[in-house]
């Protein structure tokens, strides 16, 4: 009788361990797919920036943030915390990936954040590229002569 009780207790412990590891794995897989969490984390890092739109990568490990004044931001899941980065105008290089659904991005101010970011569709990828392009030409240089027309003023 005692061995049956111990076997049942052992089975219950194994069951709870299995459930706990599955929940932890699911939490890891979710990444930044929870946009509410992304808004809170980015707002905590940059409380004076107004978020206009979010776009997550296909795997949910990164989110690009469009801010109110045509600036852009970036968040990456670093397993135990989220790295938030405000992209300064002109401090990012963007190239389309081989798949057409992604971007290869070099952050000049934060090279450790560089990477290949795949999105669910080419439309989402191009949307983020436009945000970054808008950020890139957001403000013309003040040192230019008055008769010089910059690319940002040609529209």
From TrEMBL:
Superkingdom: Bacteria
Name under which the protein is recorded: Uncharacterized protein
